[in-house]
Amino acid sequence: MSSKLTEFGRMTRKLRVEHDEYLKDMAGHLGVTPAYLSAVERGQRNAPYEWVGLLQIAYGLTHDVAERLKQALAESRAYAKLDISHLSAGDRRFMELIAERLQSFDEEER
Length: 110
Prior knowledge:
Elements: H1 7-18, H2 23-30, H3 34-41, H4 50-59, H5 63-76, H6 89-104
Protein name: HTH cro/C1-type domain-containing protein
Organism: Mesobacillus boroniphilus JCM 21738
GO molecular function, one term: DNA binding
């Protein structure tokens, strides 16, 4: 996985600097360890969307800033987890084929 700072990571880091806080302070607001928050910022873990609301409350973010943070979070997500246990074996295979095919498209084809 990537160790490059994601857009969400850049935005959260900026929030910390603006509020004179450390990684551990923001991690405390989110109820996670600093190591977990760091991994999210670097694209090694996904953050839950609930974090946007927690950050909005903790830092008094405007609606517009929260929306930009939500967009950055969506773009920074390294993977998606879907519960497909209720699908038939054929439908699960179909989902796998779609995912494989999507990876073969370039940006214009998407």
